[in-house]
Model the fold of this input.
Amino acid sequence: MSSREQGQDSSLHALSRRRALLAGLGCLAPLLPATASASASASARHAQRQARTDKSLHILTFAGCIAQTQGKVLFKPYERLTHQNIVPHGWNGQLADLQHFANLTHHALAAAMMEGSSLRIGCNLKLLSRHQTDTSSSNCGLPCASIDYAMAWDKARFETAPGWSDFWDVARHPGRRSLRRDPRITLEIALLADGIPANALYHMLGTPEGVDRAFLKLEQLRPYIAWWSTPEEAGQILTSGGALMGCVPTGEILGGAETDRQRFGLYWQQRLVVQYGWGVLATAAKNPAALAFVSWLEQAVQQQAFANAWPSLPSMTELNALAPGLGHIPPAITVDDTFWENNLEKLGERFQQWVRRT
Done:
């Protein structure tokens, strides 16, 4: 084989691996085919022409309470400060869908909010970038928002506050349970329900036996699971009566209607906290407006503004009313971005195969 043929073979292998990795990250939308049709090419050229004339910054974030909070304390203030129009679009946080949006949208995307592990993986896949000459680990962005995920339950159906083990007790508490259609958070919850202490979660998930144990626990609940893909959907499933109890961002309940805040309890003792950051798409890495916007979002002042506005924890008065005798709120379990950066490809593929068997 000539050196030119070897180079072509290496490039094709790298491209195939990138597609395979994206496909294993819990994607809900397919990647574009390797050979685009004439119509797809025409659409892309049309989108590029529109993007050149559109001076707004189009970004991806999470619809629902998250986007509403960001609009009030981040996007609107930035628009007033810079006269730069910010146009948010909702998405599900999956990297394969980021590729999909980047190729098919009618507007050039500047940035996307995503989990810390996705931020790192997107950087490794060259989907995200800041400065072409910067090879540091922070080149693609840093965590700048924390969001708690906890179990919420319909208080009319429970005499006492349930825990994760009760989440699996369909005999005593019949009904649907909602979980995230992603191994992140979901496998941790399965092990918590199986009695694994918080400080041993990732040691356990780092072993084949621990992974098997998590999937075996999920298998027990399989017929009762209502899956969600976005934070907003997690809240909607519960408030619409689609599930008796479920994992949900706490702000989707605490920031919702008063009737929902009164209707649902939240299990604070073993909640999980996910770190989120903003990634600049590689196609926007030379756009000064995109870089300036994300740099502004990462400033401590903006981080604190979102933290103050995001309804993640109740006051102690509210807590004592919701759970008398709790005394204090224990620290949240931090979802390990390094673990998921290294293991999401493998565990994501297994998880999606398991879900598709339902």
